[in-house]
Specification:
Largest sheet of chain A: 7 strands, mixed
Order of helices and strands of chain A: EEEEEEEEEEE
Shape of chain A: globular
Largest interface: A-B, 19 and 21 residues
Low-confidence stretches of chain B: none
Strand content of chain B: over 45%
Radius of gyration of chain A: 13 Å
Oligomer: heterodimer
Structural class of chain A: mainly beta
Mean pLDDT of chain A: 94
Structural class of chain B: mainly beta
Shape of chain B: globular
Mean pLDDT of chain B: 92
Chain lengths: 113, 109
């Protein structure tokens, strides 16, 4: 069975550019999570969706970040405009429910120059 | 106070050693607990769930102490391949999982 699929695996871009990260959750999972991981702050929850509806976006750092889940099999995390401090690994995860074990994608390694 | 706290380590142990990690959680309403493992430059992967009565999976034993609000992970007969970062996770009903920052284990020959 396919796991959580994220794209791209790596992204290097200049500050000010728009960045779009993509995620396909495991089929049948109804909860989807976006995380950011850095050495300093560890794994931070940015936003999560339940049945395609955003439930908690309190972790989204600022208005430059936005996330959508137009259907059960696709979600995007967008940063516009990007800044060097946004450089991190961004993970998408999905689960059968909010309190259930989460399955993570391979992550997107984002570098903003 | 952080919701899930772990000693970052690193824990450096020889092969064959027994090593234990503890983790504390601040929300007494937390109901689900897990240990995840993360290898360098990889995604976190579920290692095991933690049940109230304690549970074992091969060389790994997880314990939950609700009164003191801590979770432990015991690894017996450590292998080189156990070297990784171990993330403690807790949640309360209706919320997403809260991850600790992880404890780094290095097993050497």
């Amino acid at each position: 069975d396919a796991g959580v699929i994220q794209s791209p695996r790596h992204e290097v871009t200049e500050m000010g550019q728009e960045v779009t990260l993509r995620c396909k959750p495991i089929s049948g999972h109804n909860s989807l999570f976006w995380y950011r991981q850095t050495m300093m702050r560890g794994l931070e929850l940015l936003i999560y969706f339940n049945n395609n509806v955003p439930i908690d976006d309190s972790g989204m750092p600022e208005d430059r970040f936005s996330a959508k889940m137009p259907n059960a099999s696709f979600s995007t995390l967008k940063i516009q405009p990007s800044e060097p401090r946004d450089s991190a690994v961004y993970f998408c995860a999905s689960s059968l429910g909010r309190g259930q074990p989460q399955h993570f994608g391979d992550g997107t390694r984002l570098s903003i120059l | 106070r952080k919701e899930v706290e772990q000693d970052p380590g690193p824990f450096n142990v020889p092969e064959g050693a027994t090593v234990a990690f503890n983790c504390t959680y601040s929300n007494s309403a937390s109901q689900s607990f897990f240990w995840y493992r993360q290898d360098c430059r990889k995604e976190p992967k579920l290692l095991m769930s933690v049940y109230s009565s304690g549970n074992e999976d091969g060389r790994f034993t997880a314990q939950l102490n609700r009164a003191s609000q801590y979770i432990s992970l015991l690894i017996r007969d450590s292998k080189l391949s156990d070297s990784a970062t171990y993330l403690c996770v807790a949640n309360q009903a209706g919320t997403a999982l809260i991850f600790g920052k992880g404890t780094t284990l290095s097993v050497s020959s």
